[in-house]
């Protein structure tokens, strides 16, 4: 492929310069990567043949994706994605491999955006990162880490501890699901928990931290305060907080 195609991001025109232009480029490239790892996952998987040379996953500004050899020019015009993603394909669990590609893709997307942002001032760089950070990462989407929370509150009768991860936002497509691509971010349910307090330390709810809700008293807790990790929460069918667990049943 012509390296100029990659430099222009398959969208043509000049490089993005303003915060809005750089964010638009970032979002388009992110959408392309998401399509490769979710909607087009079978095609992507087939193209990553371990018998081939070092391959990279590219996302372009026209929302197209490509598995291709890295650019030959040194140094490259733009930061390059992770090299050799195909080699580990058959040596790992498929879901784990896709998640690993997603992590490297997140790093690449940020590096491209901040390559373009080099001439922005401090405030503009901060604003750009905030706009990017409002979107779920590729890893979160591919690994299923972005979930609707408190579904039991919405349904009224769901007592499963599996839905108590702290991310209180919109659902994202899972691997191999022909789901829509998501760019809306986390905004939908943010207002529902602005006054939620941890039952142990009294801290205010933050979407950046893992929380778990008690199925008995319905209070919410920082995972770290009750020594529950996200992984451990997945195996809990009904969670009782320390206070409810210590209460003896009435005779």
From TrEMBL:
Compartmental location: Nucleus
Keyword Transmembrane helix assigned: no
Family: Belongs to the Alfin family.
Biased composition (Basic and acidic residues): 169-183
Gene3D superfamilies the record matches: Zinc/RING finger domain, C3HC4 (zinc finger)
GO molecular-function terms, A-Z: histone binding; transcription cis-regulatory region binding; transcription coregulator activity; zinc ion binding
Protein name per Swiss-Prot or TrEMBL: PHD finger protein ALFIN-LIKE
Gene Ontology CC annotation, any one: nucleus
Pfam name, any one: PHD
This protein's domain notes: The PHD-type zinc finger mediates the binding to H3K4me3.
GO BP annotations, alphabetical order: chromatin organization; regulation of DNA-templated transcription
Keyword Metal-binding: yes
Alphabetized UniProt keyword annotations: Chromatin regulator, Metal-binding, Nucleus, Transcription, Transcription regulation, Zinc, Zinc-finger
Assembly and oligomerization: Interacts with H3K4me3 and to a lesser extent with H3K4me2.
Domain PHD-type as annotated: residue spans: 195-247
Chain positions covered by the region annotation Disordered: 146-191
């Amino acid at each position: 492929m012509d390296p100029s195609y990659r430099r222009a991001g398959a969208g043509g025109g000049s490089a993005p310069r303003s915060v809005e232009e750089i964010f638009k480029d970032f979002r388009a490239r992110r959408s392309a990567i998401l399509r490769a790892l979710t909607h087009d996952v079978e095609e992507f998987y087939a193209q990553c043949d371990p018998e081939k040379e070092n391959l990279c996953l590219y996302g372009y500004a026209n929302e197209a994706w490509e598995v291709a050899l890295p650019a030959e020019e040194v140094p490259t015009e733009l930061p390059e994605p992770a090299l050799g993603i195909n080699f580990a394909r058959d040596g790992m669990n498929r879901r784990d491999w896709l998640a690993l590609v997603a992590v490297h893709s997140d790093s690449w997307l940020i590096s491209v955006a901040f390559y373009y942002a080099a001439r922005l001032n401090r405030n503009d760089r901060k604003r750009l990162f905030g706009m990017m950070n409002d979107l779920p990462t590729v890893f979160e989407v591919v690994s299923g880490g972005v979930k609707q929370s408190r579904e039991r509150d919405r349904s009224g009768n769901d007592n499963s501890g599996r839905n108590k991860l702290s991310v209180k936002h919109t659902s994202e497509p899972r691997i191999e699901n022909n789901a829509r691509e998501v760019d809306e971010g986390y905004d939908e349910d943010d207002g529902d928990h602005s006054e939620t307090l941890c039952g142990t330390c009294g801290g205010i709810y933050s979407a950046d931290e893992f929380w778990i809700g008690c199925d008995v008293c319905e209070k919410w807790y920082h995972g770290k305060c009750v020594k529950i990790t996200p992984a451990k929460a997945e195996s809990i069918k009904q969670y009782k907080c320390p206070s409810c667990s210590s209460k003896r049943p009435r005779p």
